[in-house]
Amino acid sequence: MPKLGTAAGTLEVLRKYDFHFQKKYGQNFLIDPNKLEAIVEAAGVGEEDCVLEIGPGIGTLTQYLAERAGSVIAVEIDQALIPILSDTLSEYPNVTVINEDILKVDIARLSREKNAGRPFKVVANLPYYITTPIIMKLFESHAPIDLITIMVQTEVAERMQEGPGSKEYGALSLAVQYYSRPEIVAHVPAGCFIPAPKVGSSVIRLTRYEEPPVTVKDEAFLFRLIRASFNQRRKTLVNGLGNAEGLAVTKAEAAEALRTLGIPENIRGEALSLEQFARLSDLLCQKEAEKKGSSDPQTKKNTRIERQEDE
Ligand code: SAM
């Protein structure tokens, strides 16, 4: 089987298997060897690594990864691609393909079973329709993952890096920056894929922190607060939080907490830094706990954020 990663090699495989792209699975296959090399290089993949690849497609990036990594576990949802992958990856005994929806995979268990509990490096050309849920799953599962190198829509990559004051700054920026250091490492034109996506693409590397850059009493409360703060972007933070579902905080309490922190009461959520959200979270979660009759909220480790899909 020739190496994939060119238009000719990819088209040959597609024809051989009479493969039809499934739009619902966000299938855009890479056909540029330079960009494939750049992804593997940015991920710093070496023999000691076990790579978790999300969505191998016909196995293009998988081949590049398998040549450098100790092992690769590739999770692909589309059953039609499984026989193709066993053909295109037949010369790579260090690759395991799993036919599953990544959102349903227990990644911590996979790491125990396939990598003795050691951290994975995640490398993927992600399906754009579920970029955010995948990223949040990788973080929130608290599975051992130390580096995530992914192709995403450029706009989403930029959103992950944004800071306070920008229009694009939001819940995703804060979640990514709470867990990792984001860095855009390459831009990839639409012509590098078959079929060409309608949006620009970029590779972003997220280096997982051992400890988050801010400490909070209750991680779950912090993320409830962040979600509530960006749900009603046009309102001031005080008005947004006072109305927010799932947050037992009154307008007066929100205003008082901002005063305590020396933050103007008419501020909007998008102007607050991660550190300021953390301090606000500690004050307000204390209030919420007092209302519930407990004054010592324990640190919780589940940070669900609900988000819209990216496209
Ligand atoms: N890695 C290949 C490449 O770079 O050419 C294909 C990337 S393509 C953008 C995204 C891949 O993710 C497709 O193969 C698609 O079928 C797969 N996929 C979509 N949703 C998925 C999910 N929930 N779990 C696992 N794979 C998924």
UniProtKB/TrEMBL annotation:
Q: Which gene encodes it?
A: rsmA
Family assignment from sequence similarity: Belongs to the class I-like SAM-binding methyltransferase superfamily. rRNA adenine N(6)-methyltransferase family. RsmA subfamily.
Among HAMAP family, the record links this protein to: 16SrRNA_methyltr_A (MF_00607)
The protein in question is named: Ribosomal RNA small subunit methyltransferase A
Q: Which coarse location class describes where this protein primarily resides?
A: cytoplasm
Instruction: Kindly state which keywords UniProt assigns to this record, in alphabetical order.
Output: Cytoplasm, Methyltransferase, RNA-binding, rRNA processing, S-adenosyl-L-methionine, Transferase
State the function annotated in the UniProt record: Specifically dimethylates two adjacent adenosines (A1518 and A1519) in the loop of a conserved hairpin near the 3'-end of 16S rRNA in the 30S particle. May play a critical role in biogenesis of 30S subunits.
InterPro entries xrefs: KsgA/Erm (IPR001737), rRNA_Ade_diMease-like_C (IPR023165), rRNA_Ade_Mease_Trfase_CS (IPR020596), rRNA_Ade_methylase_Trfase_N (IPR020598), rRNA_adenine_dimethylase (IPR011530), SAM-dependent_MTases_sf (IPR029063)
GO CC terms on record? cytosol
What EC class does the entry list?
transferase
Residues annotated as binding S-adenosyl-L-methionine: 28, 30, 55, 76, 101, 125
SUPFAM superfamilies for the chain: S-adenosyl-L-methionine-dependent methyltransferases
Q: Which organism is it from?
A: Candidatus Eisenbergiella stercorigallinarum
